[in-house]
Write a structure and sequence with these properties.
The protein is globular and about 50 Å long. Strands 6-5-4-3-2-1-8-7 form an eight-stranded parallel sheet. The chain is 43% helix and 13% strand. It has eleven helices and eight strands. The relative contact order is 0.15. It is α/β, with parallel strands linked by helices. It has one domain (6-257): TIM Barrel. α2 (21-31) runs parallel beside α3 and α3 (46-56) runs parallel beside α4 (74-85).
């Protein structure tokens, strides 16, 4: 198969983006990234953002936006903005606890996502959901909110698995990818060390760079590339253990050294 392109989630370098978004986009392009994943637009228009990416030779791998922007009268403006931006993937990074605190709540939320996906499909776009650690709490009988949600979503809903957040929540990443083939359209490559978390606390687990952590990277890559339907890998590093730009630069270098 063809090599999966690698983007960076701009939340990783959010302070730099706030100071100089065009310059930061140019810097991550120079590191060898293929695209960017937005988490805020810093008061720029879709046309301005598209030009920044085009000038840097980068594609738009997605954006993180609130569920409210995908509902009701807000949806038309969201579609227009992302069409101009050149973005296909409209990913929700958080839902309220009451929308995922039981299997029934997750199934109702899945219906909402499926409805949004149906409205986006004619525009060549997809919606999706990005996990933190809480989605892997057992809701009863071994069923997690993550599996309950994605057991009921259709092909237009992206399962944006965040590897580090998943591992932090006790997720078995390989099992998730096997259970939901074809749904991992975009995947966040975030490092996490369960060893460091056990020794120094939950947040310490996020300190290592990719490759110095406990994510089973080889198995994750093999599954994404064999059955996951993955179109983008997206690096996200959010600890302050390294300067932000240095961290994402070192992560892409490690991935390229691995042949990714």
């Amino acid at each position: 198969m063809s090599k999966i392109p690698i983007a960076v989630q701009l939340y990783s370098v959010r302070d730099e983006c706030a100071r100089d978004l065009p310059g930061t986009i140019a810097k991550v392009a120079a590191m060898g990234y293929d695209g960017v994943d937005f988490a805020g637009y810093y008061n720029y228009s879709a046309a301005e953002l598209r030009k920044m990416c085009d000038d840097a030779g980068l594609k738009v791998a997605g954006t993180h936006i609130g569920m409210d922007t995908l509902l009701g009268d807000n949806l038309a403006a969201t579609i227009e903005f992302n069409a101009e931006l050149g973005n296909r993937f409209l990913i929700v990074p958080w839902i309220n606890e009451v929308e995922r605190d039981s299997p029934n709540a997750c199934w109702k939320t899945a219906e909402v996502f499926n409805g949004i996906a149906g409205k986006l499909a004619p525009h060549g776009m997809m919606t999706g959901y990005h996990n933190h650690h809480a989605e892997f709490t057992d809701l009863g009988g071994g069923l997690t909110a993550w599996d309950a949600l994605f057991d009921q979503t259709g092909p237009g809903v992206v399962m944006q698995l965040d590897t580090g957040n998943g591992l932090a929540g006790g997720a078995k990443l390989e099992e998730i990818l096997r259970r939901h083939p074809g749904k991992a359209t975009t995947v966040h490559l975030k490092p996490y060390s369960t060893v460091q978390a056990a020794a120094a606390g939950f947040e310490a687990g996020y300190k290592p760079l990719i490759g110095a952590d406990d994510v089973p990277w080889r198995a994750v890559f093999d599954l994404c590339e064999a059955t996951g339907g993955t179109e983008w890998y997206i690096v996200e590093y959010e600890s302050d253990a390294f300067p932000a730009l240095e961290a994402v630069d070192r992560c892409i270098k490690i991935l390229r050294d691995w042949g990714k």
